[in-house]
Amino acid sequence: MQPPPARMVEKSQRSAGGSSESDVATANNPIAPLNAIYFQNYYAPTVYGVPGSNNLLDLRTLIVSGRQIIRATLPLSSAEDNNGNQQSGLGDFNVFDAIRVSPAESKNVLAVGPMLTAPTATNSFLGQGKWQAGLAAVGLHPLSGGSLLVGIFTWQHPLAGEHTRPDAQGVTFQPIAALSIGGGYYVRSSGIWNFDISNNKRLIPLGIGFGKVFKTGNAIVNAFIEPQFTAYHDGIGLPSFQLFSGLQFLFRKRG
User: Fold this and answer.
1) What span, in angstroms and rounded, lies between the C-alpha atoms of 103 and 128?
2) From 72, 110, 161, 205, which residue has the greatest number of CB atoms within 10 Å?
3) Where in the sequence is the domain holding 78, given as residue range(s)?
């Protein structure tokens, strides 16, 4: 997926004196034409209705080929269960395969595809215990100066698995804003809104943070930190505050 606006921005910024604004846009573009490795961590020091803290580390990779992008995520989780015991291990593996459906000449970008979650959690408290399938959609609107707006929507429905476990039909929406402020620095917001339809749980966090994009060798590196405050919640086991941080490596294809 290679949206023309990204190339046009890159060209204009080189002519303006080698600014890294185009790299900021590329690093925060979830459907940029680069393969990538992500390390993203959510730390929640307090959780509604449950003692103790939670931590979630997402190990993520993106593989891009033409108009197709495959995103795979393996979570490593640590949380206190209902008995106050700390549980740590793998969560449920998730992958989606999105195809760019917007015209190549379009300023805005839209990619849509199927999504699958496998019950790989090493502890019943850290996963759903169900195979789940659904859809994912990514929309992007580039702004001037290397800034951009992104929306990521997912929907999943349980298919099979442990029949004694409750179903968890889920919808998420992640509005992302990355506003370049020069020198590779940017201001960001990317809280994921979660809606567990089956169990009437809802979480809407609002985040504000900053990041830095720089180059090293053939990679673009994106480092960021973003405190996220819960603006609305319904249900227990949800974070009242999260500290979201990440380190991303995006690799340009040689040749």
Assistant:
1) 37
2) 205
3) 4-251
Q: How many domains does the chain have?
A: 1
Instruction: Check if the beta carbon of residue 91 is closer than 8 Å to that of residue 75.
Output: yes
For 102, the token pair is: 């917007």
145: which DSSP letter? G
Q: What is the CATH number of the domain that holds 216?
A: 2.40.160.40
Cα–Cα distance between 33 and 253 in angstroms, integer? 9
Return d(Cα 251, Cα 246) in angstroms, integer: 16
Task: State both tokens at 93.
Answer: 């593996």
This prediction has a pTM of 0.86
C-alpha–C-alpha distance, residues 77 and 181, integer Å: 34
- For tokens 């459907």, what's the residue? 31
Tokens 């673009």, located at residue: 220
Query: Is pLDDT of 28 > 80?
Result: yes
Confidence band of 252 (pLDDT split at 50, 70, 90): confident
d(C-alpha 60, C-alpha 40), whole Å: 8
